[in-house]
Amino acid sequence: MLTSDGDRRLAGPEHHPLILGFQDIAADALPLAGGKAANLGVLTRAGLPVPPGICLTTWAYRRVAEGAHLGEVLDALARTAPGDTATLAELAGRARAAVLAAPVPDDIARAVRRATDGPVAVRSSATAEDLPDASFAGQQDTYLNVVGPEAVLDAVRRCWASLWTDRAVAYRAANGIDHAAVHLAVVIQRMVQAEVAGVMFTANPVTGRRREVVIDASPGLGESVVSGGVNPDHFVVGPAKKITKRVLGDKATVIRSVEGGGTEQVARESADGPCLTDDQIVALAGLGARVEDHYGSPQDTEWAIDSSGALWLTQARPITTLYPLPETSPDGLRVYFCFSLAQGLHRPITPMGVSAFRTLAGSVIATLYGARTGPLPLAEPGMRLFGDITGVMRSRVGRAVVPRLLDVMEARSAVVLRGLFDDPRLSVTHRSPLPAVRRVWRVAARYRIPVRIVQALRDPRSARRRMEWVVERLRERLALSPDATPEQRLDHVEHCLRTEVVPMIPHIVPFPAAGFLMMALAARLLRGRSRPGELPTVLRGLPHNVTTEMDLALWHAASRIRADAASARALAGPALPQGELPPVLRAELDGFLARYGHRAVAEIDLGMPRWADDPSHVLGVLANYLRLDDPSLAPDEQFARGAREAEDMIRTLARRVGGLRGRVVRFALGRTRELAGYREMPKFCFIVALGEMRGHLAAVGKELAGRGLLEKPDDVFMLSIAEARAGLGGADQRALVRTRRATYERELRRRHIPRVMLSDGTEPEAVGAAAPVEGAMTGTPASPGTVTGKARVILDPVGAHLSPGEILVAPSTDPGWTPLFLTAGGLVMEMGGSNSHGAVVAREYGIPAVVGVPDATSRVATGDEITVDGTTGAVTLAAPLAASPARPPA
Question: Which among 64, 455, 568, 588 is placed 20 to 30 Å from 649, CA to CA?
Fold first, then answer.
């Protein structure tokens, strides 16, 4: 029997074990037993009810794979891009055929025959499977109710071959896992003839709420639930073992074992009533809690109940889709807001970037409060920056002000926060507005903000002079002698982040604030007299926007490059080393970088390379511009056309109300156009500072790499400021950097980031979101107009190509994305509000835009025809959306 044979270790001629019983498999046995068997071994050793079984180790597969001669296929796979699905599938097929054709050594065949008895499940267990950051669920095969030694050996061979299914190869390629480094063990486990079975998550995988158990159950074998082949019963159990939700499925079919081997799917005569009793549901939840406590993290489990009522655990693996919680959280329910996502940064932030944000946050608190008042309300789960805004939610002033600010910056976050106002756990405890008013007034008086607003409205040219003075003063204070030591450079970085960057903001903010105050005045005067989309038209073609000026400068450079045949050919062909660029292209690139080289994609992260460090993105955008050959679509013409439309709209609105009110509307909207474009200046100055700081830190990294304390200079950005200082003191940081880089690479692959998250893991947006109408998406109107065209889904702008007229669908944008807007026919973003960066640029270029569209990049595919209505906020697909795929089998 499996229980007795599993006690023996059968070894091959190389003295590597071929067979291990579950009780012999520890958590560190992943290279030998694969992920599934390692977990079953851990659960067995913990005393949990696991059906007994054995593992045919990876050494058996290695020997068979040697006979399959996979070297040529592996070399070809290493050269194949993850997106080349056709080639990956062809190579996967060759590998499968080779493994199936390879002979099974006699000692392995004998070991399998001797170690099995009775009906069993034969299950694949790959070394890249059931991992904390990648489940690989369903990528390899499982065979149920296998009867007889020869049938078991055949199922083992097919499991080995399933390491090379098309889906497994594509999954590994997409996750950056070396195909040659993955091996397969096989689990042979006593078959549980289940009366009812299913899946249990020990945290809610949809809402993220921890300690809320979610159970899907159906009669028969669990394969019907796991594969998505049946509508199961659905139960939710709260932390106090209280059943909080029941949704009964039709359970129209059932999978059962067939005598003599195999399974069959049959229709059920009746689907009335739940397939689990309340006692069974609570017992399952208790088992889930034991599993989670043992692993210390939420688990995705599979279970079965046999005819005697015994409960069996057949699988456990981490829930890889849950967003991580903050490492430490104060007592009680806390509310966390993702600042980095609200700024258009979807990717993780480097440790040095986080360190810089923490230093800047301390400076903000010192500016507002005059001194630090305890720990910073910041957390970095998932290498993103979250702020603890529980105090805001408990404040009457915070509830009134912050959602209104988010309405024009990140509108969906505002909706989510307002949805939390009725939560009794977040009742208002700070009712008086006086402390907040006094704080704001102190800052306003110190920096003479009201006076500067009045000055800007009286003489908008004074704003331009003030901006030039702020930038010049900032550059002076950031300067440092080229002979400075690494220690002095690090001190200078910390000093500037703490005392120079934040205090510049109040010198700039009054000017765009004056512009938007005037727009608010005009909106009030026009109440009931303006139509949807008319007021946003006033913001088209805004002058004095540094990002727009940058984009147009790049377009003009492209126009001059187009006139030089050698430069145009260089951009149209394969990428050239920078030293080989034609003279005109070289001169235009250098001129652009001299003004804007401090900018970058994801530029608010100090750890990200600037365009001056790596101009490949700029060269790619220039090449994209050269594809535009319709003069009417030229960005400068579109910008000028938008400005003319804005001026015409001001005259139209002023005439519509007439009289004194019309003259006030004309004045107010004129000042809006003169001043609102300065909204980008605070961030521009911030990025100037980060560019300078990055140069100093690069010198520190070069010093540490030279001493052998880092492997390469750029590794310094995988450290915090304090850790870099420790490196200068002699600490070897190489191991720490390797760990950080692995985490960073893993987080780069994460697709979903919560806007708002509670300390118990709940994502309020997921809890309150209604199921969308099939094929329809809605968001926040950002730039008026309607366009229908082909979608181009872009997750990273570096190297991206957008053909003229295509509709850009992106998670979010920052200035590194905006050159793509020049050829875009429209814009759809998952993040943002009507005054977010992407919305502003879209209005300035006159392209329809909708922002804050949930899951747009996964619900729309490149090539889909979509219609974007920037007036109503609707995004529609020409064809219905495909149904979501079922959960893959294990």
Answer: 455
Where do we find the tokens 């020049």?
A: 822
Say yes or no to pLDDT of 880 above 60: no
> Exposed/middle/buried for 341, CB within 10 Å: 0-12, 13-18, 19+?
buried
Q: Place 888 in a pLDDT band, splitting at 50, 70 and 90.
A: very low
Residues in Cβ contact with 446 at an 8 Å cutoff, skipping those fewer than 6 apart: 506
- Cα 849 to its chain centre, rounded Å, is 22
Annotated catalytic residues are: 837
Give the residue among 602, 558, 624 at the shortest CA–CA distance from 806: 624
Through-space distance between the first and last CA atoms of the chain, rounded to whole angstroms: 24
Alpha helices per DSSP H over 604-658: 616-626, 635-657
Query: Of 579, 570, 582, 580, which is closest to residue 620 (Cα–Cα)?
Result: 570
Contact at 8 Å (CB) between 882 and 133? no
DSSP annotation of 8 reads S
**Neighbour tally for 506: CB within 10 Å:** 17
User: 2-59: per-residue pLDDT in tens?
Assistant: 543 433 334 444 567 899 999 999 989 999 999 999 999 999 999 999 999 999 999 9
- Residues forming beta bridges with residue 684, ordered by sequence position: none
CA–CA dist 124, 319 (Å, integer): 19
Reference 847, options 627, 645, 568; nearest CA is 645
Judged on CB neighbours under 10 Å (0-12, 13-18, 19+), 573 is exposed
d(CA 51, CA 118): 13
DSSP 710: S
Distance of CA 629 to the CA centre of its chain: 35
DSSP of 100-134: HHSPPPHHHHHHHHHH--SSEEEEEEESSSS-SS-
* pLDDT-derived band at 794, boundaries 50, 70, 90: very high
The DSSP symbol for 605 reads S
Evaluate whether 243 touches 282 at the Cβ level (below 8 Å): yes
* Phi and psi based region of residue 581 (left: phi greater than 0; alpha: psi -120 to 50; beta: remaining): beta
Residue 487, pLDDT > 70, answer yes
Backbone φ, ψ for residue 266 (5° rounding): -130, 155
Instruction: Work out the angle between the directed axes of helices 681-706 and 546-562 (0-180°, nearest 10).
Output: 70
Distance (Å) of CA 7 to CA 12, 115, 123, 186, 733: 16, 10, 20, 17, 44
Instruction: Give the pLDDT confidence of 666-721 residue by residue, as tens digits.
Output: 999 999 999 999 998 998 999 999 999 999 999 999 999 999 999 999 999 999 99
- Per-residue pLDDT, 226: 76
Q: In terms of residues, how long is the chain?
A: 890
Neighbours of 565 (CB within 10 A): 10
Backbone angles phi, psi at 560, to 5 degrees: -70, -35
Least confident of 293-307, 363-377, 475-489: 363-377
